[in-house]
Amino acid sequence: MTDVSADGVLAELRALRAGDLPTHGGRTLAYVYDSALPGLDELAASAHALAASVNGLDPTAFPSLLRLENDVVRTAARLLGGDDRTVGTVTSGGTESCLLAVVAARDARPDVERPSMVLPETAHAAFHKAGHYFGVRVVAVPVDPVTFQADAAAMAAAIDSSTVLVVASAPSYAHGVVDPIADIAAAAAAHGVRFHVDACIGGWVLPHGPDVPPFDFSVPGVTSISVDLHKYAYCPKGTSVLLHASADLRRSQYFASAAWPGYTMLNSTTQSTRSGGPLAAAWAVLRHIGDDGYRSLALRALESTRVLREGIAEIDGLRVLGAPSSTLLAVAASRDDFDVFTVADEMKARNWYVQPQFAYRSSPANLHLTVTAANHGQESELLADLRASVKAAVEAGPVAVAPEVLEFIGGLEPDSLTPEEFGGLLAAAGMTGDTGLPERMATVNTLLAAARPALRERLLVEFLGALYS
Ligand SMILES: *Cc1c(COP(=O)(O)O)cnc(C)c1O
Fold it and tell me: Which residues, renumbered to this chain, carry the PTM N6-(pyridoxal phosphate)lysine (predicted)?
């Protein structure tokens, strides 16, 4: 006897999934990537099912996974200017690829007592996580306040004897701009320091982009590159690749322990048991789409981004930040009589999800759009809704928060926030019911925007703890 029938369980799951943002159809412009290719999901799901129980922990026991991983790594290396010496690892995602690049750089330099890494302040937060996990101090260098590109000269000046790694993005998540990779690579090489190019989001698109300066292993001094398969390679969630220019550079990424009575643990990633499912799914998708397929998917997403960018420039009140050369847009307000957070709510009411990004250093509050192949052909509908959303946001006016609430937030200390203070803030944000998030998030976002970064981190950690049992 079973508790719930298989059909019943799946019906429950479908009902739960119906409450999510749509993962397909192009209306969710962050978190998800839709190729719009028919049959791709079914192929990936079948491949995943064939290997989900296989354990990548021991490639000698399951040689199929060894073969799949080598195939995937070689495909990524070929795309990103690698040669016969290029090696790599398939990881669970971009963050894990970045973490491993940092730990490999740290452990290759046991001579450095207090290691640090130099990165532009636009680098992905995964590097702050890596610094936190592995005790590598983050030296974040300001970027150009207009282009949002890394300042190569300032980064070069920040490299010192404690630097074990230099990082740049191709492109950055927040603004979609490519850093001056060749200049930064030259500076890192001159100091004999490793240089990681974070191409997690753009690596599968940029090689097809017009006018993108070299950003891959063809640039001397680039020692590692991360590229996610679960972004623009349109694979199911759970795969990324970390490439190294040579096996020597990869060695310190591996971990072995014979210091216990069980099997000698030998790992290439932070995981030990590794499901073969995501790897098999990614391998199947890569083989099925192929070089020509990826080229046409990239061109569709790039073309769609260009049309959106030009259309947004025509909307009174909006401007695109920097000069993005990939498929990501950061859209800010060019006037102060409305809030972009309200525009996000208005877009949500029109069934589009765009992602609010808070102001940080030279970057003003804006809306992030990850454009995929599925958006091709939808541009005029999206632009019309964006125009209408700005109009509605102007009519609503800027989000008004009572001065005493702002004062209350200003007085909170992240290190000693009490449950009462947190409760008070939730109440101020209108989050007192048990229905979860309010329909409209502009007030919540305005309150969060008023909190300085350290306090915002603390508030959101508290919030996460309240969500999960
Ligand atoms: C998405 C992303 C990451 C992190 O990847 P996850 O797969 O979300 O862990 C790192 N760097 C860049 C530039 C990204 O866009």
Answer: 231
Task: Please write the tens of the pLDDT for every residue from 352-362.
Answer: 999 999 999 99
Q: Distance, CA 465 to ligand 1 centroid (Å)?
A: 23
What is the topology classification, in CATH, of domain 291-396? Answer: Aspartate Aminotransferase, domain 1 (3.90.1150)
Q: Which atom of ligand 1 is nearest to the CA of 199?
A: 13
The tens digit of pLDDT for each residue in 413-464 reads 999 888 888 888 888 777 766 656 788 999 999 999 999 999 999 999 988 9
Give CA–CA dist 115/130, Å, rounded.
12
pTM of the complete model beyond 0.85: yes
Domain segments of the chain: what residues? Answer: 44-286, 291-396, 403-467
What separation in Å is there between the alpha carbon of 191 and the centre of ligand 1?
A: 27
Residues within a 6 A CB radius of ligand 1: 93-95, 98, 124, 126, 169, 173, 198, 200-201, 228, 240
CATH of domain 44-286: 3.40.640.10
91, 224, 228, 240: residue to mutate for ligand 1 pocket, most atoms within 8 A of CB: 228
